[in-house]
Design brief:
Chain lengths: 114, 106
């Protein structure tokens, strides 16, 4: 079957605008993760959804960031009032369960805030 | 101090060499992941292990839970192995090391 897909693949926006990034996980995967990789930096956890449980939002850097997962499948990461420091590659991953399961990564969305 | 430390940060090897990348962590984990990221490419999960040793082709990963240490070995390295290798400690989420940039020269 298809892997994790993300859209758009690239997004250029102006400072202050809102952006929405989409992730389609592998069908049947109950866990979905969002990560960020800034230029020259390592991977950074943002948020984690597991089934119907409340999401783990502990990695979100500010209240401008939010995410939702509708119907236990597709997820949207929203960044409001974007700042230049939000420029990064945003990666989504999914797995069958908890963090000790193999995660399958999407290709990422490269966000550039001008 | 980072919860997950990798060494070396950069590694250059000649084709055919045996390569070792090390990962130490300071947190309690349920598993440890090794990931591979090619330049401009996506991330691929290589191994997920919670004890002992796993082997896949020329890649071997080991973990010592008591010492909180894991190693990734590449035997008979090849230029196509050139990539960033990342270890990540799994608690209820992944905590990433900073990555090791490997360049294998022909």
């Amino acid at each position: 079957g298809a892997g994790v897909s993300q859209s758009p693949s690239n997004k250029v926006t102006e400072k202050g605008k809102d952006v929405e990034l989409r992730c389609d996980p592998i069908s049947g995967h109950t866990a979905l993760y969002w990560y960020r990789q800034s230029l020259g930096q390592g991977l950074e956890f943002l948020i984690y959804f597991q089934g119907n449980s409340a999401p783990d939002k502990s990695g979100l850097p500010s209240d401008r960031f939010s995410a939702e997962r509708t119907g236990g499948s597709v997820s949207t990461l929203t960044i409001q009032r974007t700042q230049q420091e939000d420029s990064a590659v945003y990666l989504c991953a999914s797995s069958f369960g908890l963090a000790h399961e193999t995660q399958y990564f999407g290709p990422g969305t490269r966000l550039l805030v001008l | 101090k980072n919860e997950v430390e990798q060494s070396p940060q950069n590694l250059t090897a000649q084709e055919g060499e045996f390569i070792t990348i090390n990962c130490s962590y300071s947190v309690g984990i349920s598993a440890l992941h090794w990931l591979q990221q090619h330049p401009g490419g996506g991330i691929v999960s290589l191994f997920m292990l919670s004890s002992g040793k796993k082997k896949h082709g020329r890649l071997i990963a080991t973990i010592n839970i008591q010492e909180k240490h894991s190693s990734l070995h590449i035997t008979a390295s090849h230029p196509r192995d050139s990539a960033v290798y990342i270890c990540a400690a799994a608690k209820n989420k992944l905590i990433f090391g900073t990555g090791t940039l490997l360049a294998v020269q022909p």
